[in-house]
Every structure is written in C-alpha cells, then in structure tokens.
Write a structure and sequence with these properties.
It is a single chain. With 242 residues, this protein is of the alpha/beta class. It has a single domain (13-239), classed as Uracil-DNA Glycosylase, subunit E (3-Layer(aba) Sandwich), CATH 3.40.470. The chain is built from 10 helices and 7 strands. A 7-stranded mixed sheet has the order 1-3-2-4-6-5-7, sandwiched between helices. The protein is globular, with a radius of gyration of 17 Å. The model is unreliable at 211-236 (pLDDT under 50).
C-alpha cells in the first residue's frame, strides 16, 4: 500500500475522524453522516463493501439495514461477531440514489481504505459484491470467483456476494453461507502466507488459488502494512476465534 497520503494517521480512530470531516469529493455535499467503518482495530478478518446506503448514511455505521442484518446472520454461521471483525466500504459516503461511486470519488477515498488495511493488518479481506472485489482483483468475475481463497501478496482475498444480492435472490443464501464458512480456512492460509513472508519465502500475488467446485456456483447476481511482523501468540489469538 502507498502510505505517502496517510503518514499522520496512527490509529483507526484518527482515520475515522478524518473521514467524518472529509471534503475531498462531492459526496461530502450530500451525505448526512460519513461512514468510516466499525469493528476491531486488530481484526484478522476485514469486510469491505462498495459504499454506504440510506440507513448507513443516517446512522454513520456500516451495514445496519436489511443487508446488515443478513450479514450478521451469516457471521453467526462461522461463528463470528461484529466485534471480532472490521467492516467498512470502498467509499465512506453514500453516493446519491445508491449509484455506483465515480472513479474520482473512489480515488479520493482510497487513502482512507489503504490506511485502514495497513493499520488493522487483516489476514483475510472479504469483499462483499462485484464492485468491491474488482478493486482488489480486477480480472475477477463474482459468479466464478465467489468463495475462492485467493492469495493477495501476504494476505488472502475471499470474495463473496453482497448481502443485498441475496435479499433480491434468496437462492443465493445457501451459496453465501457456504462461502462465508470458508473464513477459518482463509485465516489459516493467511497465517501461512505471513509466516512465509517473515521467512522470506512469500508467494507472488494470486499465485496460490483455490476454487470451489463449479457445480456449486450460484446464478450470477450482485448488488450495487504497518505491522506485518507479529509474534506467534498473536496468530494463536486470532485462530482462537474459531
């Protein structure tokens, strides 16, 4: 990650404060509240959506509407609680009418997301929906790549469908449960990647990929490193979640 834009941010709280007062793009003119993100600042798993919706804009918290309730129920399947993970979006302010963010809006917000990833240093990034996945894996296709464990440098990328997609198409519920239950496996892979990195034998990005059987794919539907070197006790603490 390019850290030149956020060298003064030393904590997740500082980033949140900067987000709440941000005027870098036109989304600041129409928001009610910016939505920096919420959860553990030392999470092993980080969830990233595309942008806040109406409920999130009103409350200043990520995934608090119907899609958020579905995400909560999915986390219980792992099992995980919101306090175990960190949840945020690519852009931190609601695009009017829930439209897709413009490239300039994404670029203006990217330093915040990069800083969050650097400070939290998650083992696994779970992208929610096609748009979020493409920010990290541009060659991907959500209908093919959902539920895949993909190496992303020293981290693991696990793309899943956006919960809003399952609200529109209930047939995706079973697929989403199956995909999100791969989180413990993804965390183990992430621990191995970071251990290899400390030993100087890390793999190139996307070199090791694992794909669920094609027969399990669901219909194509979608909604709109600061401390890389941590000791083994931290690794054990993160795996104890499962």
């Amino acid at each position: 990650m390019d850290s030149q834009h956020h060298t003064n941010w030393e904590s997740i709280e500082q980033i949140a404060g900067a987000v709440r007062s941000c005027t870098r793009c036109v989304l600041a003119e129409t928001r009610t509240n910016a939505v920096p993100g919420d959860g553990s600042p030392t999470a092993a798993v980080m969830f990233i959506g595309e942008g806040p919706g109406q409920n999130e804009d009103e409350q200043g918290l990520p995934f608090v509407g119907r899609a958020g309730k579905l995400l909560d129920s999915l986390l219980e399947q792992v099992p995980l609680q919101r306090s175990d993970v960190f949840i945020t979006n690519v852009v931190k302010c609601r695009p009017p009418g829930n439209r897709d963010p413009e490239p300039g809006e994404v670029a203006a917000c990217m330093p915040y997301l990069e800083a969050q990833i650097d400070l939290i240093n998650p083992r696994v990034i779970v992208t929610l929906g096609r748009h979020s996945m493409l920010r990290f894996y541009p060659q991907g296709k959500i209908s093919n790549d959902h539920g895949r464990i993909i190496s992303l440098g020293s981290r693991i990328l696990l793309p899943i469908y956006h919960p809003a997609a399952a609200l529109r198409n209930p047939r995706l519920n079973e697929t989403m449960v199956r995909d999100i239950k791969r989180i413990p496996e993804a965390v183990r892979e992430g621990l191995m990647l970071q251990s290899s990195s400390r030993e100087g034998t890390s793999q190139a990005p996307n070199e090791a990929q694992d794909q669920a059987p094609a027969s399990q794919d669901a219909p194509s539907t979608d909604a709109a490193p600061a401390s890389e070197h941590q000791d083994d006790s931290d690794d054990r603490d993160q795996m104890s979640l499962f």
